[in-house]
Amino acid sequence: MAAVRMLRQSRRSVGPALRRLSAQPEATSEVLERPALSQMPNMLDVGSRKIFTAEHDAFRETCRAFYEEHVVPFHDEWEVTGVVPRELWVKAGEYGLLGINAPEEYGGLGADVAFAAVQWEEQFYGKGSLSGPGFSLHSDIVMPYITNYGTVAQKEKYLPACCAGEKILAIAMTEPGAGSDLQGLKTTAAKVDGGYVLNGSKTYITNGYSADVTVVVARTNKDKKAAHGTSLFLVDSGIAGYSKGTPLKKAGLKAQDTCELFFEDCFIPDDALLGELDHGFYYLMNELPQERLMIAVEAQARAEAAFEDARSWCNERSAFGKPLIDKQVVAHTLAKMKTKVCVSRAFVDQCLELHALGKLDSATASMAKASATDLAWQICDDAVQLHGGAGYMWEYAASKRLVDSRVPRIYGGSNEIMYELIARTCKTDA
pTM for the complete prediction? Predict the structure, then answer.
């Protein structure tokens, strides 16, 4: 946690690495001397990649210590219960892992996206497949809606508690009949005296069971298309007409809290409206590039961890009297895995740079999300194959990473939708 205190003290004088690189023609020698991922003895070692500095490294050490001490020893238990304890959220707040990009005046670190990326990566670098804590969705998908579109009163009410881990956030978009197609939303918020009445249901909601506050996407004007008649609402748990299903049993991400939400004549006051009425779809589109970038960064980290796990296994394991690594087919498989991972890392880091400069567009974010999640699935599958029968056993991280790497190709907009968005940029004007 010393790194967090140092970050608070030095941010104004030192500044984020990405902005320094963009502002100065001659980058600092510290940044120039940092090795590329392909040049590191181990991809998970601290100190690589030119988008980071010593400040980021210190914060990475803090994040790594948190996961090693407070998550790894207990994750198997949480895979059985399907949810992580609330105490973990408070501990994460103490370590400065929540609200990294949130303004300091509301309890956040006020840091740049590179610091958030460090936290995203370290969760998936952790021993095993640490899918349980929904910190990134809480901090970097949901919290920005409050920061960017909330009133001062809403920010004061929610952000400090969310940064401290005392309140947990979720966002409810997906419905039984509307997944990637937000135009098909059926949940409604009808205007009444003093507020709105919510009716409808949501499914596959990450953090939904534990959430204290949920950003609910609902139709507020049926006479308009969804893009022009959708709004966002801050809905507190425990109010009349709002109920939750039990945590869903999933093929992977077993420790991650995922559930259904139900709204039946659920009254919410006027001040629950987040942003302007009927502007919800535009807000969602504005925030999707960061969400998809986050998914890409996490998938990339999972692929790197899977490669290192497979490399270690093949160097230590013997077959036919020799280490596996001495078999050409094994060595070449690892070589291909490393090449693909390092090439993908270069593009994902480029997207982080673009986002830090406010220049990450939807199509580029879609490229990152689709390519990195497809890569992670492939690398995790290769890792299982290299482990042999052991790779199919739940006690091994290779097995967990494989099943956990499947659904990122679906959530955040399915990869088929990503390629559709990318394809629109391929057509030239006649």
Answer: 0.92
